[in-house]
Amino acid sequence: MSSQEKIAALLQENRLFPPPPDFAERAHVKDMSLHEWARKDRLGFWAAMAERLHWFKKWDTVLEWEPPFYKWFVGGKLNASYNCIDRHLTSWRRNKAAIIWEGEPGDERVLTYQDLHREVSKAANMLKSLGVRRGDRVTIYLPMIPELPIAMLACARIGAIHSVVFGGFSAESLAGRINDAQAKIVITADGGWRRGNVVPLKQNTDEALKSCPSVEKVIVVKRIGHESLVHHNWVEGRDLWWHTLMRNQPDTCPVEEMDAEDPLYILYTSGSTGKPKGVLHTTGGYLTGVAATTHYVFDLKDEDVYWCTADIGWVTGHSYIVYGPLAEGATTVMYEGTPDYPDRGRFWDIVQKYRVNILYTAPTAIRSFMKWGEEWPARYDLSSLRLIGTVGEPINPEAWIWYHQHIGRGKCPIVDTWWQTETGMIMITPLPGVTHTKPGSATIPFPGVSAEVVDGAGNPVGPGEGGFLVLTEPAPAMLRTVWGDPDRYVAQYYSRFGKSVYFTGDGAKKDENGYFIIVGRVDDVINVSGHRIGTWEVESALVDHPAVAEAAVIGRNHDIKGQAISAFVILKEGHQPSEAMEKELKEHVVRKIGALARPEEILFTADLPKTRSGKIMRRLLRDIAEGRALGDTTTLADPAVVQQLKEKYEATE
Ligand code: WTA
After folding, report:
1. Which of 321, 391, 425, 469 is the best mutation target for the ligand 1 pocket, counting ligand atoms within 8 Å of the beta carbon and taking the most?
2. Is ipTM > 0.90 here?
3. Ligand 1 site-directed mutation target among 506, 525, 529, most atoms within 8 Å of CB
4. In this chain, where does the modification N6-acetyllysine occur (predicted)?
5. Which residue, judged by its Cα, is nearest atom 24 of ligand 1?
6. Of 100, 198, 128, 63, the residue nearest 480 (C-alpha)
7. CB atoms < 10 A from the CB of 131, how many?
């Protein structure tokens, strides 16, 4: 049998993969008792999970609610930085590697918990010396270097709220996020390495700050060291070098006693309408959720080397590079660059070099590895791996099987974890010592999490039937609100199915065993390589161009990225479609949002399919872009429009 045929056979069998016996024997969770406990006493279970943390004062009430607003561990006092660092200093862990960092050019840094304590304390004192106080917002726009988690934990230490902006976002996106949060300080770097090139973060920051009056100071980490990256626009009095400021800071800094419900951070994410919204996470519930899931989902042991390949600019990095692993006293690996630099073996080189035991990555990366060929991982010793995971988008069974065979070498359980920026922590997932996994399914909710698949009226659907994924009970790590816009929080998440049911925006179904299969977004959010982008954002960027009259954007299937952005554009009179115009519009979107939003293709058209009430019918555009027979067109104002578009699309392929 060819490997293709083998895979096809595997899929037809629809096999369940039981946990390997030697893994199960040593796992934290060996049976369903955790799930049962949580089912019988949900709040008691979460209270026990919260006990995993260090509290300066215990809470009075586990959960207080007035749907859709929830408060967890009310009256409790704690500090996230203390939980991620200080509490590990009293044991042998103080000399344990907290962060193992590798830069893209191959430079390395290892920070023990004691090192982390010193650096974070100094950074906290640095922020204080610049006037940062409890509740102030600090925007962090850094590459994947140790100063990024150091800055986050420094904010947490003094009660400042961080807002990390992914380094791939444009100056304009950065400005929007700084202004929404009204940040006082921006922490950035001269640049970061990406595939051998420099990302000019300081230059982007300078551009952004032309429209950000709230910012008083910019702290600049010297990562690259090229004078030209900073010199052209260094603003005396505003711009300060990180290393100069850090030099004389005291290396201890008392922690603020934060209320369980005090904000920890804001993280912007795309929704179905409007600009990205600031998802607000608070301290006690969030840390409880990420610590518990890190422990149980990854079956994390003290001796493990754990590597999550996400960028800290996204929630996966916040929860599963920084807060979860450090709260658990783990060794967490951080890598600055891309998987194909200097060659396509870079990830496997890192696994081999640091003897990584647990690897957490994304389906889009796995599909790239598949395309590059199994000979790349085969060249390295991956025998240290004992558990592998995925997150960010649905994983197709072929990719699951490939990951299982070529990375897990048939012996590592796979945890396919479903969650969102808004949920803060993993919500649907196998527990690797007990759950039988199934390719393409995230399996069942984590203990203490209640999920359901419902129809449009909110009633649960039967096995195999498609519906909407909802969460029927609050969980501690979930967002508390949208920063500065509670109405949007209610409208976005708690209006579709009522005030006490959280709508995820995802479509899903359950199989006969109650396993969840997440199909993807059912709203106007596109998931490109695991990154969320709103159609509205890309459309606004396009119509911002002087040649564009109207634009409609959809996500279409893509072999590697999961989804790719397709744009349909009507040009203004006097402008002609051309390759040059297509290129210019793509660049315009990159300038406005960032490279992650670059449309895969732009189709120029004279008209767009609209309903009689004037709504663009994206469903039809998706049918066209994915080459399907056209669905129902009877509600269209002018059915000829789609037919013409379809012919045109096929002609350009
Ligand atoms: C999708 C990333 C299928 C889903 C942590 C969700 C997934 C969105 C999975 C959140 C998974 C995430 N299987 N789909 N295991 N994990 N998704 O906010 O559509 O960047 O709503 O959070 O990614 O993306 P976000």
Report:
1. 391
2. yes
3. 506
4. 615
5. 420
6. 63
7. 11
